[in-house]
């Protein structure tokens, strides 16, 4: 449809019809046969509102969506199709690693391919919009949703935001297999106080702009069709009713002109927040802020017409919102093809196809982070291996959002190991060792589920059997981890250790065996002090997805070398949280050289440094990085302004005995500036794959973008002075050179 036709269509709509477009229904309203049911009385919505709601979330499946769309259009006097949205977070039927694990790949280009694959699988099931990417920066491992973020770094997050939006959307939303992307949650949702989900966010304007805003900007710049509001307050005002944030920062500053949707029931929450007295005020504030779609509350549908008639709201505000919604439907080509790519046949051939599984496996392999290895990995061939632990046979390795996928499609460690070693191999044995959680543990949160009932006696029996199996083996692989539903939304944890019952297993097995390699499943950084103290090797595998087991066995057996790097610091203890590498410089910095000085920014009882820093990860080989060479000692501001750059160069050598991949990382520090700068900021990285003894040169161009920041005067620019350039293999590198900016 042409723009003029859309404008004409808008003119034809009655006030009520426009308001219906702004309502999003939860999928629970529909039942099979495309009949509208649901708790109509409680919601206060009329049949007409339900029938003409502009969008729906959480319905998927080509057959279901086709039936609903056909039925819907029978009652739609203007032929405006219904829009279908869903949380496609890390895959659809083929599940790939959670976003935090993708951060560890340090490979946004691969994330783009993964997003393309997810878009394809979801599109043939009729989905048109995904509520992804979540680009919220995170620093607090207690928050369950760190699993949905790519980590603590604004530069890295921005690259992923762009890659994922491009992957889902492609060049043209109307093309086959494209989904509209929704950047969320605007803004600052990743910083809930004390790591408690939905809690207040306290961010200074500077911290907000310096660290949190860049990834949203990157998503918007990449052309994201939608943005979602966050639940939290920003500067004391809940985001969903925050006009300066939405109309000012998002639309004017970041230049977003797509559809803004509230998060689930966020409009209603303006009332308990104490920002609005009632639903009428909530409607008013949300519309004034520029929220186009009300996710699930019905507040717009019930309140807006009266507000317009009373002259409390200008109809122009509504027109603006509805036009944006119609434009999105049009960009997706829905007026011509209301069910877009929905295709029940393609669902069968495309979803979980070999090609998709291979891509998911590659991503999982790239995302694993080897945290410790005292030479026991890769496993030596011909040895007796005991695979012990609750994750040996557990297919629940998809992460919290993957309710469209089935656990049966996931490859477990045992299945993959049997493939590699042979099912009847007498050298290899498998033992549960312990349940994931203590018998009787409560588990709530998304898709709360009943834990398999393991009795106390059975738990004891598993434990003893595991200890005996360990004694009989040459090496033990201990597959431990958080429960899938201990991570994700509404899954904040104050104690981020492994469940007690698994720690007991670890201690008992390590008491009888010195060669224990832990394979660790988690949706967040955990407190691993005890695990690291006892195990000889630790491989972090996150929630790896459908091909998790195959990828793990490929890495354990050395067919593939681990190469992931932490996208988020692993705290030494929860008392350090929030802990992140790119902190602002303090006036009393601590370093080991000033150990004797108590009056430093430090703890008395634990180190300042996290247990494992941002950017850290081992491989099966070692690399040497040469001192940093700069091509100039100084550069003028005028030259930078004219687009010139200086170059930092290192040579990197594989000093080990096997091939491997290293991620060479560039960090900058602005030594003195009009505002305090972070001690280090990631500004570039490059992955290199080298054969034993092979050497290569890695160069980074450093220009205006990398050196500029929002100065005390409020402009983004480079200030003259000294800069330190660090190049190394993690964020603690001290391999540095300096230059001046004149
Ligand atoms: C979450 C969003 C999600 C939405 C729809 C909310 O509870 O915060 O991230 O997209 O539900 O499922």
Could you please describe the fold and organization of this structure?
The chain is α/β, with parallel strands linked by helices. Helix content is 31%, strand content 18%. It contains 22 helices and 29 strands. The strands form seven sheets. The chain has an eight-stranded parallel beta sheet. Strands 13-18-17-16-14-15 form a six-stranded mixed beta sheet. α6 crosses α15, α8 packs parallel to α9 (205-221) and α17 (456-472) packs parallel to α18 (500-512). It is globular. The model has no long low-confidence stretch (mean pLDDT 96). Bound molecules: beta-D-glucopyranose. Beta-D-glucopyranose (BGC) is lined by residues 57, 87, 131, 184, 263-264, 489. Residues 57, 87, 131, 184, 263-264, 489 line the site of beta-D-glucopyranose.
- Low-confidence runs of at least 5 consecutive residues: none
Bound compounds, each kind once, are: beta-D-glucopyranose
Distance between the termini: 54 Å
The count of strands amounts to 29
Main sheet: which strands, in order across? 11-8-7-6-5-4-1-12
Q: Return Rg in Å.
A: 27 Å
Main sheet overview: 8 strands, parallel
User: In DSSP terms, counting alpha (H) and pi (I) runs of 4 or more, how many helices?
Assistant: 22
Derived structural class: alpha/beta
* Strand residues, percent: 15-25%
């Amino acid at each position: 449809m042409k723009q003029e036709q859309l404008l004409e269509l808008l003119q034809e709509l009655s006030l009520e019809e426009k308001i219906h477009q702004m309502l999003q229904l939860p999928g629970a309203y529909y039942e099979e046969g495309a009949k509208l049911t649901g708790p109509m009385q409680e919601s206060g919505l009329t049949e007409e509102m339900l029938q003409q709601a502009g969008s729906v979330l959480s319905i998927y499946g080509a057959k279901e969506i086709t039936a609903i769309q056909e039925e819907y259009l029978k009652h739609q006097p203007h032929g405006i199709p219904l829009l279908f949205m869903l949380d496609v977070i890390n895959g659809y039927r083929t599940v790939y690693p959670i976003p935090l694990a993708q951060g560890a790949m340090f490979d946004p280009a691969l994330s783009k391919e993964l997003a393309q694959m997810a878009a394809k699988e979801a599109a043939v099931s009729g989905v048109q919009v995904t509520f992804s990417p979540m680009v919220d920066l995170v620093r607090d491992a207690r928050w369950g949703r760190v699993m949905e973020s790519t980590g603590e770094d604004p530069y890295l997050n921005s690259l992923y935001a762009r890659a994922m939006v491009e992957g889902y959307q492609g060049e043209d939303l109307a093309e086959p297999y494209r989904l509209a992307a929704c950047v969320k949650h605007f803004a600052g949702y990743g910083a809930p106080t004390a790591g408690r989900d939905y809690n207040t966010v306290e961010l200074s304007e500077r911290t907000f702009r310096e660290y949190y805003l860049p990834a949203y900007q990157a998503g918007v710049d990449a052309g994201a069709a939608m943005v979602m509001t966050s639940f939290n307050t920003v500067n004391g005002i809940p985001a969903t009713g925050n006009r300066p944030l939405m109309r000012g920062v998002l639309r004017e500053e970041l230049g977003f002109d797509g559809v803004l949707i509230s998060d689930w029931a966020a409009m209603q929450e303006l009332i308990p927040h104490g920002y609005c007295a009632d639903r009428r005020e909530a409607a008013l504030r949300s519309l004034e802020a520029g929220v186009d779609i009300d996710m699930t509350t019905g507040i717009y549908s019930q309140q807006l017409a009266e507000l317009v008639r009373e002259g409390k709201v200008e109809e122009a505000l509504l027109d603006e919102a509805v036009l944006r919604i119609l434009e999105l439907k049009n960009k997706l080509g829905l007026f011509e093809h209301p069910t877009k790519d929905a295709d029940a046949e393609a669902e069968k051939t495309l979803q979980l196809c070999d090609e998709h599984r291979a891509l998911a496996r590659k991503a999982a392999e790239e995302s694993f982070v080897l945290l410790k290895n005292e030479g026991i990995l890769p496993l030596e061939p011909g040895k007796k291996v005991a695979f012990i632990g609750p994750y040996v046979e557990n297919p629940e390795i998809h992460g919290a959002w993957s309710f469209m996928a089935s656990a049966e499609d996931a490859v477990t460690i045992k299945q993959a190991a049997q493939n590699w070693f042979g099912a009847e191999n007498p050298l290899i044995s498998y033992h549960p060792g312990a349940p994931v959680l203590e018998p009787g543990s409560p588990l709530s949160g998304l898709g709360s589920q009943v834990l398999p009932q393991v009795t106390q006696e059975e738990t004891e029996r598993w434990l003893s059997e595991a200890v005996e199996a360990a004694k009989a083996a040459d090496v033990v692989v201990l597959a431990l981890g958080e429960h899938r539903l201990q991570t994700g939304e509404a899954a904040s944890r104050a104690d981020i250790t492994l469940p007690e019952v698994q720690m007991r297993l670890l201690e008992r097995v390590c008491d009888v065996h010195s060669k224990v390699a832990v394979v660790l499943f988690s949706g967040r950084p955990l407190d691993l002090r005890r695990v690291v103290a006892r195990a000889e090797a630790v491989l972090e595998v996150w929630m790896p997805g459908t091909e998790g087991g195959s990828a793990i066995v490929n890495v354990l057996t050395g067919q593939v070398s681990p190469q992931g790097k932490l996208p988020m610091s692993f705290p030494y203890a929860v008392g350090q949280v929030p802990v992140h590498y790119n902190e602002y410089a303090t006036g009393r910095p601590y370093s080991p050289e000033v150990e004797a000085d108590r009056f430093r920014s430090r703890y008395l009882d634990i180190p300042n440094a996290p247990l494992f820093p941002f950017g850290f990860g081992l491989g099966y080989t070692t690399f040497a990085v040469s001192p940093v060479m700069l091509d100039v000692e100084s550069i003028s501001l005028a030259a930078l302004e004219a687009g010139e750059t200086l170059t930092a160069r290192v040579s990197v050598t594989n000093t080990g005995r096997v091939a491997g991949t290293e991620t060479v990382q560039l960090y900058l520090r602005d030594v003195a500036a009009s505002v305090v700068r972070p001690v280090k900021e990631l500004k570039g990285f490059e992955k290199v794959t080298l054969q034993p003894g092979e050497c290569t040169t890695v160069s980074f161009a450093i220009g205006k973008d990398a050196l500029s920041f929002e100065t005390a005067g409020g402009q983004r620019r480079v200030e003259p002075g000294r800069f330190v350039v660090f190049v190394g293999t993690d964020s603690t590198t001290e391999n540095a050179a300096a230059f001046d900016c004149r």
